[in-house]
Amino acid sequence: LVSVLTQLTQELLSYSTSDRNAPLLELLQLLDRDLTYVSDIVKKALQVKKTGTGDPELLTNAEKLLQIHKPCVTLVGPLITLLPNEDVSLANMASHNLSLLTQLIGSEGKEILNRNYCLIFSTVLKSADSSKQKILLRSLKRLITADKRNLEVARACNDELLDSLNKIKKSAAIEADVGLVGHIDELLQLFG
What we know:
- By secondary structure, the chain is mainly alpha-helical.
- The protein has two domains: 1-108, no CATH class; 111-192.
- It is 80% helix and 0% strand.
- It has helices at 2-13, 17-51, 57-68, 76-82, 88-105, 115-127, 130-146, 148-156, 158-174, 178-191.
- It comes from Didymodactylos carnosus.
- This is Cullin-associated and neddylation-dissociated protein 1.
- InterPro entries: ULK4.
């Protein structure tokens, strides 16, 4: 299922926008359900590991699921390109899938970021509401901290990202959104 979803999603992205949105949204919804399931199993497994109580086989199952879903790392870039999509449902689903993937892939997210993806993040962050900004900032942070090269790419796009982050931080401070300010401060520290 994972390889089929990955392949179909990548193929649909090559189609013209008018031909791809409906089937792409359906595929992203399938991916979302799948990744949510994996995320739930991983959380339960971590709880078993932490407390020492529960089904120890859950740990093995979680590891197997993560292994099976490794190919999904190739979808991170295409999901980023869908973030500014005019179809709000598609953009929101891409954002949620990106969030789930960056949580699950951890250190597998090597050499994913490029200048274009950083610019997309910068642009989308400016126009998103605060809850979506938090999701995007967490995803960006996970990508940046997954690999030294990703951090270097983000630093190379520093002007655009810094401008966006500082504007959002200023607005969040006015609205007393401490959570959003905290996410931004964490990223600004990474940029050094």
